[in-house]
Write a structure and sequence with these properties.
Layout lengths: L12 H10 L1 H9 L29 H12 L2 E6 L2 E6 L2 H10 L11 H6 L4 H5 L3 H12 L2 H6 L1 H9 L9 E2 H18 L9 H21 L3 H4 L4 H6 L2 H31 L14 H9 L12 H32 L1 H15 L7 H4 L3 H13 L4 E5 L5 E3 L2 E3 L4 E5 H5 L43 H18 E4 L20 E6 L7 H12 L1
The structure holds protoporphyrin IX containing FE.
Length: about 525
């Protein structure tokens, strides 16, 4: 999500070796200008090549490679991403210091070129002085339990669509994306629901654009970011052209929505029969537009349209991708572990009983479901969170951290620590039964939503949406792999078998009540 997750481009070894040879002279120059800190003050560092630094040691899954390096070099190490020194934290204790107890010393996140293009400026543009106030508005107006309940009917509508996907296999990735983008589009932008005219199409368009933007932010950590002399490679790959195209399409879309909301407000104020701005009809975009004229609430800051667009985009990028990934990875883990899938379905079906709908109160009785989602978030956490040190030198873990240094928190490594987790690579939801782990950021062994001032404000919204979607998908249907997919190799890596296509089989309830039979028939006749 946003620049919070850092992945590396797959690096062609030939390019790397040539670059290393050609640039070794330049390295001598760079070294002559290198840090004024003596190396004994700095954390341990793996051996590195000229210019490319440690990039050759970081495969497609940088978080996994960094974890391996940290086992040898310690919980705080200095790794060179090309010419950029990164201070990599792999222990919960040090992560807590950076993210929470000493957060003022590590206030910002890292910027990338893709980030600057998509948000029309850097991190400061969105997360500047006004952000604390906007965060509060997000939590109370968009992500509150009341708003979550008010939007429940949208989730229900989308889940019913499953029945339309009767021609197997069902594209679950598409279903989860539509569900996440529709729910957020309504809460944030007030876009129409699927039943209202072009609602579905608009939701799909923004959902797809946002996913493209997330991929650009996550995957396209461009060569130029680490080795400026290689930025021509990024141009050659058309990365910035693509980012600019996606950015322009998103901004045009958001501008249209903002203009529509302004027009609705104008007509309503002029008594021209426009939409009534009642509590339920006021969306996040309306609240931001209102804040534009409330400098008093915003600590004297006047929100610009550009900032409004950037804030709306942050909500989408942060909200959609992470929820979809969690849903996809949970279903993949369940298909790989049929025992766990059966146990979970038994729990869901026994709680739902003869009812034809799943209510919010039912979810609170599904303890094993919560364990399953927690375990998915342990194994498939947004792998890395970034921070930038303030403009003063500081110390961490007894080592020197220079002013403005880039810090990477390897969340994945912390969630894999064998000192905390028995058989850490296995999917074992039972490990969370009767434990203290939650998402409030109190614990430094497990914190998929991060810690401290910048902790994810969408925790409740995300957990409810994810649990609700899984309970529906697993209650009425059993799931199988399509014939063409080999069970042994299914889901060996995170990116494998995506988009996720599975065969839904309507579940045969023993002695099912008339209500359930009617529900299932209703679904299959849709
Ligand atoms: C499973 C789902 C989710 C996960 C695992 C997740 C995780 C995270 C993480 C790790 C961060 C970075 C915090 C940091 O830098 O310290 C974050 C930030 C953020 N998330 Fe989430 N998130 C999820 C869903 C959502 C949803 C559904 C929304 C909104 C609807 C949301 C909105 C945000 C926002 C606005 C930020 C930026 C907060 C700030 O910088 O102050 N997230 N999230």
């Amino acid at each position: 999500m946003m620049d919070m997750v850092v992945k590396l481009p797959s690096v062609n070894p030939v390019i790397l070796v040539c670059t290393a040879l050609l640039c070794s002279l330049a390295f001598l120059y760079v070294r002559s200008r290198s840090s004024r800190h003596s190396s004994s003050d700095l954390p341990p560092s793996p051996w590195r090549l000229p210019i490319i630094g440690n990039l050759h040691q970081l495969g497609g899954s940088a978080h996994q490679s960094l974890h391996v390096l940290s086992l040898e070099h310690g919980p705080l190490m200095l790794v060179h991403f090309g010419l950029v020194p990164m201070f990599v934290v792999s222990s919960g204790e040090l992560a807590r210091e950076v993210l929470k107890t000493r957060e003022v010393e590590f206030p910002g996140r890292l910027n990338t070129e893709a980030y600057r293009i998509l948000f029309e400026g850097g991190e400061d543009k969105i997360f500047g002085p006004a952000w604390t106030q906007i965060r509060k508005v997000c939590v109370s107006e968009v992500l509150s339990l009341k708003r979550i309940q008010a939007l429940q009917f949208i989730r229900e509508e989308e889940l019913r669509r499953l029945a339309d996907e009767r021609r197997p296999p069902a594209d679950l990735s598409d279903l989860f994306l539509t569900l996440a983008s529709t729910t957020l589009s309504r809460a944030v932008l007030g876009l129409e629901s699927a039943e209202q005219g072009g609602g579905r199409e608009s939701n799909r368009v923004i959902g797809q654009l946002v996913r493209e933007a997330s991929n650009l932010l996550n995957d396209v950590v461009a060569f130029g970011a680490y080795i400026p002399a290689l930025s021509w490679l990024d141009n050659l790959r058309g990365l910035y052209r693509k980012t600019k195209r996606v950015s322009q399409a998103i901004h045009e879309f958001l501008d249209r929505v903002i203009d529509e909301r302004l027009e609705i407000r104008r007509r309503s104020e002029a008594g021209e029969g426009g939409e009534q701005e009642t509590g339920d009809r006021k969306y996040f975009v309306d609240i931001l537009l209102e804040l534009q004229t409330r400098k008093d609430v915003m600590g004297g800051h006047e929100l610009t349209r550009m900032e409004i667009r950037a804030i709306l985009l942050v909500m989408f990028i942060a909200g959609i991708d992470s929820s979809v990934i969690t849903l996809e990875q949970t279903m993949k883990e369940l298909v790989k572990n049929p025992r766990i899938m059966r146990k979970l379905q038994q729990e869901i079906r026994s709680v739902v009983g003869n009812k034809s709908e799943i209510h919010q109160s039912d979810l609170s009785r599904m303890e094993y479901l919560k364990c399953v989602v927690k375990e998915t978030l342990r194994l498939h956490v947004p792998p890395m969170v970034t921070r930038q040190a303030s403009d003063k030198d500081s110390k961490l873990g007894g080592f020197q951290i220079p002013a403005n240094a880039a810090v990477l928190i390897n969340m994945w490594a912390i969630h894999m620590d064998p000192a905390t987790w028995d058989r850490p690579l296995e999917f074992l939801p039972e490990r969370f039964l009767n434990t203290r782990y939650d998402f409030t950021g109190q614990d430094d062994k497990y914190f998929p939503f991060s810690l401290g001032r910048r902790i994810c404000p969408g925790v409740q919204f995300a957990m409810f949406s994810i649990e609700y979607a899984l309970a529906h998908v697993l209650c009425w249907f059993d799931w199988e792999l399509p014939d063409e997919i080999c069970a042994q190799s299914f889901g060996m890596s995170e990116d494998q078998n995506l988009p996720l296509r599975l065969v839904p089989l309507l579940h045969k309830f023993d002695g099912a009540s008339q209500t359930i039979i009617t529900k299932i028939k209703g679904l299959s006749n849709k």
